[in-house]
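Hi U.,

Before I forget, here's the chain from the pilot set. I'm dumping it here mostly so it's searchable later in email.
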Amino acid sequence: MKALIAWVMKGRTQAIMATTVSGMLALMITPMALISAALVVLATLRNGAREGLVVVLSAGFAIAGLGGLIFNMPLAMAIMGLVLWLPAWGSGLLLGQSRSLSKTIEVLAMAAIGLVVAQYLLLGDPNAYWDGLITEYMKLQFDTAVVPEADQQALATAIAGWMPGGVAASWLSSSSVAVFIALWMQAKLNQTNEFGQAFRAFAVSRVWLWLVPITLLPSLLSDQGPTLLGQLYLVGTTLFLLQGLSVAHAWVHQKGESKRGWIYGLYFVLFVGLPYSVTAIAAAGFADGWLNFRAKIQSKD
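Structure:
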């Protein structure tokens, strides 16, 4: 793996090729989008803002050309690439300047909040917009003999209510994972443990500890469905999910290899128990923000 990463980072041409190819593969294998974005973060982190931007723009032209040849959609493919890679370039720039994983992810969270607000400003009624899209999708995918139209509409309405925040939280999650992958690649190349150390120390600022309950309360009290503040709660929950995972990794690292199975179990429960597992782990991360479990773990050893 280290040899492959080293080859990709050997020069500009290799970085552009790898970014473009992984971006194209993302159309068939969705997780490849994370790899593609991570390569942009890594190129920016190692070679600076200018070189990272060259990779983004060059890969954008390349994927537009391939999109024109294969799908006859050069503009759509170029836009897809830039939407994926420009935020990754910004993440690499932030991480390189701040040298702080926590600060970088917090800035991404603020951008996610901007994404929620933009939906309310540009779409007028984002719930109605998403309701229409989801309803049309269900009509194409679901058989009314199996799932009655009334049930489809009720499900679409329930999902649409949380879509503005859900889209932002999903973007924050994927952008954060791309940064994690890039930092892991950097650690492989440098033969250091910088990623592990940074992730185990991940903790958000105290302002988020106040923001989450403030954004949750209006939705709990409202009988009109999720509010704008309620959508922001999903962004905050994503941050504390990452902090909860960080606490778990720190505990296992402190206890040694004999406890490593707990991590596998945690991720198994995370994916099998969705969405309740996310809330539970985020609650642990939120509690860590107030109580600093990691300091207590270290003081006991």
